[in-house]
User: Which sequence fits this backbone?
């Protein structure tokens, strides 16, 4: 069992215990442990196998250590079965809805006998929910919106989670000698932030080996059920619910299949059209010169492999047959990549090494878990030349946002960190809340003394699009603002973007020389790829930040860059790819 699944099971346990009314300290301890597990870089399974003492990990006591061992050894958790005998298990799903915590879930269950999302929707629409204590009309509206979001995302997996669910399957198949090449195609290979399923391709040269490969696939660790297992195609569903397809291919068509199953569908359509203009038929089997007679007889429904095969072994061959250079999978979304390829104008996509600093992170001064100094040391270890400490401002009370007084106190600590940690420039920043009316949450005299000012919306997501847009425009046109962070507020699979006219925001950002953030947190990845593409087209500055709330989250940067590449970003488009001096000039860009 992977760490992420262990964390998931413990989270379910904590949610259900909380609904049951267990001791809050115990629940808090579980939640701390879940965070520890989520941040681990090593596999708990390996640690247990090596008989390591898990109680040495922060936040993991005797109880939790034995639960983890039980999950790894049996795949089950007895205490969870005990709790679910009393509290309906579906209630844990209800608490995932924005606006429904364990307290509300319990009330819904006890007073309305509501335990599922469908039943909740029905009860809300029938007006029963708003009559309950603690649920006003507003909160019912919010719940109904959350249900819609939930439905929309059902069945899609965060990329970052899918990576972890998939890992044991890949490791297992990498040990199979009959497979010469193994690749993940589909939306996963295109770097999409969520994936519907996983499309695996295996190159198997000997036809006689196929059955054994299929058997290895269906026997992979973590398989919940086998949907099909044919000669060249199999489908499994993992215990996490993630569906995985495998296609077994020979060398002649491997590249063509890799291209086809990488998609996107829209890209494939354009490729096929381009082939047709050249008298070629492009398919998952290869690129074939259309045989006039055969196609007249058989039409489109004819033998997909008729005609002379002119490409198929590699993707380069397939693109080459269409007079194109190879196009990176992240660009294959039909956003003009064929034309750019033809003109030799494909972007030189940004890489991790291009990043010179991280400009958005939290510390123990607000809702972060590590000190300024610890963050600075970690940023330096990542090879950065600079960083900005950007805790929340006062309006964000749930995150213990800073008042002007506390910000000034923080500067003392930043000064100490500057002395203690050499080799990295630490900028004084703040993530300043854009209030409901568009004004900023800190007075100008504080903003003036900050090196960098980030602004963001953290409340009143319910505003109508025009009001929300006006609010954000007012926020970013304040003359001391540098970056608009997480511009749409989306939380993947949880909260839709708030309604905002992004074109207007980008135009205004351009005019006022404000940068927009690509937030690298795998749950946010906001700005989205198509907005990044637009920002680049307009020439709006982009900043890629992790918004780290602890040292380990500084590693989110790579996930952000994957999204950036989907938006065609080059290092030159990204402010924090500039060297220190150049970046400092950028900070002073509007000074008279
Ligand atoms: P997902 O799984 O929803 O995140 O998205 P994809 O892109 O991985 O889609 P999937 O798994 O349905 O199919 C994998 C690729 O196979 C897809 O990106 C393109 C190709 N493909 C599938 N169905 C069609 C189709 O009907 N026409 C074309 N041209 N390509 C297709
Ligand atoms: Ca897929
Ligand atoms: Ca698929």
Assistant:
């Amino acid at each position: 069992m992977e760490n992420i699944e262990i964390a998931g099971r413990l989270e379910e346990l904590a949610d259900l215990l909380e609904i049951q009314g267990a001791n809050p300290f115990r629940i808090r301890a579980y939640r701390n442990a879940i965070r520890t597990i989520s941040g681990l870089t090593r596999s708990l399974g390996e640690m247990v196998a090596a008989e390591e003492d898990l109680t040495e990990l922060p936040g993991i006591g005797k109880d939790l250590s034995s639960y983890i061992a039980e999950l790894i050894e049996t795949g089950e958790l007895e205490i969870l079965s005990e709790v679910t005998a009393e509290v309906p298990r579906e209630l844990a799903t209800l608490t995932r809805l924005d606006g429904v915590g364990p307290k509300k879930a319990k009330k819904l269950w006890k007073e309305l006998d509501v335990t599922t999302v469908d039943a909740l929707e029905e009860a809300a629409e029938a007006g029963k929910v708003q009559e309950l204590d603690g649920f006003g009309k507003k909160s019912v509206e919010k719940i109904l919106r959350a249900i819609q979001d939930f439905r929309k995302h059902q069945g899609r997996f965060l990329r970052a989670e899918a990576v972890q669910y998939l890992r044991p399957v890949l490791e297992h198949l990498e040990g199979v000698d009959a497979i010469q090449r193994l690749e993940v195609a589909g939306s996963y290979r295109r770097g999409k932030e969520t994936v519907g399923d996983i499309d695996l391709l295996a190159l198997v040269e000997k036809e006689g080996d196929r059955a054994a490969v299929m058997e290895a696939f269906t026997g992979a660790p973590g398989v919940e059920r086998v949907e099909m297992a044919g000669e060249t195609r199999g489908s499994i569903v993992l215990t996490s619910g993630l569906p995985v397809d495998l296609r077994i291919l020979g060398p002649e068509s491997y590249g063509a299949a890799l291209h086809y199953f990488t998609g996107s569908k829209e890209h494939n359509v354009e490729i096929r059209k381009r082939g047709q203009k050249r008298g070629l038929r492009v398919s998952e089997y290869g690129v074939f010169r259309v045989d006039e007679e055969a196609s007249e007889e058989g039409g489109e429904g004819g033998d997909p492999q008729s005609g002379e095969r002119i490409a198929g072994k590699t993707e380069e061959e397939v693109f080459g047959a269409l007079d194109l250079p190879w196009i990176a999978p992240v660009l294959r979304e039909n956003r003009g990549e064929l034309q750019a390829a033809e003109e030799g104008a494909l972007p030189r996509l940004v890489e991790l090494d291009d990043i010179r600093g991280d400009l958005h992170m939290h510390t123990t001064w607000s809702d972060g878990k590590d000190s300024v100094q610890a963050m600075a040391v970690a940023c330096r270890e990542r090879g950065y030349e600079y960083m900005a400490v950007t805790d929340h401002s006062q309006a964000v009370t749930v995150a213990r946002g800073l008042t002007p007084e506390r910000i000034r106190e923080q500067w003392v600590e930043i000064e100490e960190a500057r002395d203690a940690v050499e080799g990295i420039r630490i900028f004084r920043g703040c993530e300043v809340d854009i209030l409901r009316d568009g004004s900023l949450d800190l007075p100008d005299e504080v903003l003036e003394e900050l090196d960098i000012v980030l602004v963001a919306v953290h409340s009143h997501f319910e505003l109508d699009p025009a009001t929300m847009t006006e609010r954000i425009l007012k926020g970013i046109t304040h003359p001391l603002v540098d970056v608009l962070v997480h511009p749409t507020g989306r939380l993947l699979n949880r909260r839709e973007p708030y309604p905002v006219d992004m074109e207007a925001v980008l135009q205004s950002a351009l005019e006022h020389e404000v940068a927009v953030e690509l937030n690298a947190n795998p749950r946010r990845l906001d700005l989205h790829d198509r907005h990044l593409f637009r920002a680049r087209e307009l020439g709006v500055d982009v900043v890629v930040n992790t918004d780290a709330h602890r040292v380990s989250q500084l590693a989110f940067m790579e996930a952000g860059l994957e999204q950036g590449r989907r938006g065609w970003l080059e290092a030159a488009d990204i402010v924090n790819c500039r060297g220190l001096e150049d970046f400092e000039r950028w900070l002073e860009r509007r000074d008279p």
Residues 334 and 527 are 19 Å apart (CA to CA). The chain has a mean pLDDT of 93.
